[in-house]
Structures are given as C-alpha cells and as structure tokens.
Amino acid sequence: MSAVEYEPYFDPMVDLDGLWTVEMAARHLPIDGMPPTRYEAVEGRLRMSPREGSANSWATSRLIRLLDPAALSAGHALYTALNVRTGIKGWIEPDLVLLKSPARNQTWFEPEQVLCPIEIISPSSHHRDRIDKPAICAALGIPFYLHVQVWRGEVELELLRLGSSGRYITQARARSGELFETAEPFPMSFDPAELLEP
Length: 198
Description:
Blueprint: H1 12-15, H2 22-28, E1 37-42, E2 45-50, H3 54-73, E3 77-80, E4 83-87, E5 90-92, E6 96-99, E7 108-109, E8 114-120, H4 126-139, E9 144-151, E10 154-162, E11 168-175, E12 180-182, E13 188-190
Pfam families: Uma2
Keywords: Endonuclease, Hydrolase, Nuclease
InterPro entries: Nuclease_put_TT1808, Restrct_endonuc-II-like, Uma2
C-alpha cells in the first residue's frame, strides 16, 4: 500500500490564531467563503461577529444624519466602520468612528486620530461592545466613547468621557422620550427615539 500524500493546506483561522497583526489582516482578510462579517483582533486572536439586524442598521444611518452636520462644523469627520489599531496584535472596528479631522485614503487608523468610537450594541457581542472595547479605548487615551443600544422599541444612548483617572465617566445619557444633550465633543441635542425604525 502506497503512502497517501497530502497537499499542505493553509487555514488562516487556525494557522494564524494568536498571531494576527494589522499586516496579517491586510494580507488575509476578508477570508474567502465567509459571510459578510466584522473582523477585530485582541492579543492576536481574531474575533468575528455577524452583521446585526435592521434595527441597528437603521439606528446607524439615522445617527449619521443627526451627527454629521455638527461634527463637520466642529472640524471633525464621522465615518462608518474603520479599522482602529489597538496595538501590535489588535484592532477594533466600531460601527461609526468620529475622527478629530478628515482622513485621506487611509485603511488603518491610530488611536490619536480618534475622537469618539460609536458602538451600536450588538446582542452577539454585547460584552465586548459595552465592557472590553471601552476599556481598550480608555487605555489608549481616546477622549470619548458612545454606546447606543436598541431593544424592544427603546433606545438608550450613553456618552462616556475620559476622566483624569484614565477611565471613562458618563458625560450624557438618555432614553427614548428624553433629551440626549451635550456640548462636547460637539453640540448634540435630540431624542434617542429618532433612531428607531418607523
């Protein structure tokens, strides 16, 4: 009986586990055959999460319409998902990213460029969106962080500001039917209910 010869097979999900860097991501992502997904990495370990439902998508599009004019007036720039480096072996991809100033054809962004990541909290990544990512962003010195949570016909927004302790503290918070209002990082004033699907 002759020996069976096997072709070497490279599987980035297995072979690069724990080794992911921005350079590896630029070379191997997106992964062929995978459905549309968000790719992030923590300590070289790839994290994937599926696209969320229509409620989150609608909230994202409405938030852009509400925030973009004031952000531009203040000299900032609001983008949909961008790759923000968190270290040699990590990056995050917030749903929206408020940059301190407009970018020019960049793919990867440094924390120093980011004014405020914005996360529409996802059931599939709730812990990461509400706890892990804010802790990472605070450690990187990113000045603000905005959570948006849509559930059962309600919306809650919480804007966090980096305190002198190096941790985030609540700057503004509101639920549907209340006024979400803040002067920083630029003036905002609206009812979170405006982010709900019609």
